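Same chain as my last thread, 198 residues:
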Amino acid sequence: MFTDKATWRMRVLERRDSLSPQVKASLDASIVTWIANLPEGGPWVGPGATIAAYVPIGSEPGTTAMLEVLRKGGFRVLLPKVAPGPPAPLEWAWYDGPESLHAGRFGLLEPSGNSASPDALGDAALILVPALSVDRHGIRLGRGAGYYDRSISEVDTDKLVAVVFDDELVDELPSDEFDVPMGWSLTPDEGFRRLGTS
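reply #2:
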């Protein structure tokens, strides 16, 4: 096991980048299927609820198809926007379909729809959080800038779902005092799994 976050990040990104397009597409399709079945399979949400998600880039798990299955399933979808300046809490806006996405800071796709109220994230029934890895205690490994940890520090842990590939759900990760624990993981093979219970 690696003992520092930088090494973990490097190793995870190397593994992700080595996935063939066919394997990546299959894994992403499985994630979309789990998300499409949220009303039947999840304890958190009912039709019409707000779900905060993200727009996957590069080798991150998922595709914009997961946003579409949520929207077409009757959910209101919140997406993050990165404000100018040093790392700070993310801003959030409503997703109105693929045509509403545009390139934002760091080349990330962001919604051009109406900005959400400051309370919208806390009111979301579920928050899908991008991660490089997550451990069985709920410790999430992000990219290191702290945007998400700043944004979700006051959110109920049971609403937080780290989206990773199956080999990125591990026994233990290095952590520090600012890491916000996840309540759940979502992986292509295992779907939604509660964390921190063992």
